[in-house]
């Protein structure tokens, strides 16, 4: 966490952020320039117990130069003013530093004009509208009116934003890879002939009106209520591990896309009657329904706009069939044969994934699931 350029600012910020308690003793490290002075100050602090350390950058540089091991082995409750890219002292819980973060992803918080450069340099800048004006607020990525709102910005909005962005990006990948897998299977069956599976409006409609609304409605999803996220800030720690969006989740969705695309395509090739147009009708309808079902299975907290998005996409597809007689056989899709074939293919592509998801949540539930029951 980046604080101001004064020892008093670092101390007040640490207290407001509850890094240290209000009645905890604070040891202000005296300004030192020589090895002897640093040795005396380190011994003086070592004799204290359950005390927070406040040290300036110049004094810390001297200590690290002559007593690097001793400086980092101090057992303090909460060290203040240590560099963010340096290891925490043994036994410490957190650190508050002053404009010295390198090799990390800092979040800069400021309320004055002298904080503008710090806010712009950080990966995420938060400006507080205060008595010093709105310079910091205008230069920041996010703006809050009071410092206490920073907790909700991080624990609620920041956490939801990360998880929603992860889910949205994965579904965009799934949506594209699924239809690509179908095209690959189709080409391999017909000896890699350069014949597209879907033509014209079907490709454009699949990427826009047929699947866009449900997929983008995932930005409204949330796993826990805002009050629960504020009450249990430990939930934020799961995001630090990068599990919602990692190589593992990416490969998982790639396998899901290949599996579903292959099932839909092979199912349509096995169950179609006699015309090529029937393959397109069965596979494309199954693809749309699979995508809508996958979004529904991923949602954890339903919002009324999500329901509208699902119904709107399905309605747009059904309504557009009237204008696509050359691409989809309208008479065939009204038969019982078409309905049971599409139903079987859709269930085979989605039901195993739902069972695996249920078993995983049953035997290895995530941390937030304990707070939703």
Automatic annotation (TrEMBL):
Name this protein carries in UniProt: Uncharacterized protein
Organism this protein belongs to: Chaenocephalus aceratus (Blackfin icefish)
């Amino acid at each position: 966490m980046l604080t101001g350029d004064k020892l008093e600012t670092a101390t007040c910020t640490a207290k407001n952020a509850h890094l240290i308690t209000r009645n905890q003793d604070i040891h202000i490290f005296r300004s030192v320039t020589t090895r002897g002075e640093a040795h005396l100050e380190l011994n003086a602090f070592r004799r204290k117990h359950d005390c927070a350390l406040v040290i300036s950058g110049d004094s810390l540089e001297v200590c690290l130069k002559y007593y690097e091991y001793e400086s980092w082995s101090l057992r303090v409750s909460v060290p203040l003013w240590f560099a963010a890219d340096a290891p925490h002292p043994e036994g410490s819980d957190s650190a508050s530093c002053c404009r010295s973060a390198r090799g990390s992803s800092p979040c800069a918080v400021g309320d004055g004009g002298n904080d503008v450069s710090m806010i712009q340099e950080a990966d995420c800048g938060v400006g507080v509208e205060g008595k010093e004006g709105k310079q910091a607020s205008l230069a920041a990525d996010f703006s809050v009116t009071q410092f206490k709102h920073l907790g909700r910005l991080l624990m609620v909005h920041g956490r939801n934003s990360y998880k929603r962005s992860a889910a949205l990006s994965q579904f965009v990948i799934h949506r594209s890879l699924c239809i690509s897998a179908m095209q690959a299977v189709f080409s391999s069956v017909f000896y890699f002939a350069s014949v597209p599976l879907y033509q014209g409006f079907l490709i454009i409609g699949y990427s826009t009106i047929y699947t866009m609304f449900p997929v983008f409605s995932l930005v409204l999803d949330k796993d826990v209520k805002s009050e629960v996220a504020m009450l249990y800030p430990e939930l934020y720690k799961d995001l630090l591990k990068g599990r919602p969006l990692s190589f593992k989740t990416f490969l998982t969705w790639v396998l899901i896309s290949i599996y579903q695309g292959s099932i839909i395509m092979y199912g349509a090739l096995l169950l179609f009657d006699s015309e090529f147009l029937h393959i397109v009708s069965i596979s494309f309808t199954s693809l749309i329904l699979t995508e809508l079902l996958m979004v529904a299975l991923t949602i954890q907290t339903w919002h009324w706009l999500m329901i509208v998005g699902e119904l709107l996409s399905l309605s747009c597809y059904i309504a557009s069939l009237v204008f696509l007689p050359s691409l989809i056989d309208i008479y065939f899709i009204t038969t019982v044969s078409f309905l049971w074939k599409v139903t079987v293919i859709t269930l085979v592509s989605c039901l195993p994934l739902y069972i695996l998801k249920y078993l995983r949540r049953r035997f290895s539930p995530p941390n937030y699931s304990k707070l939703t029951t």
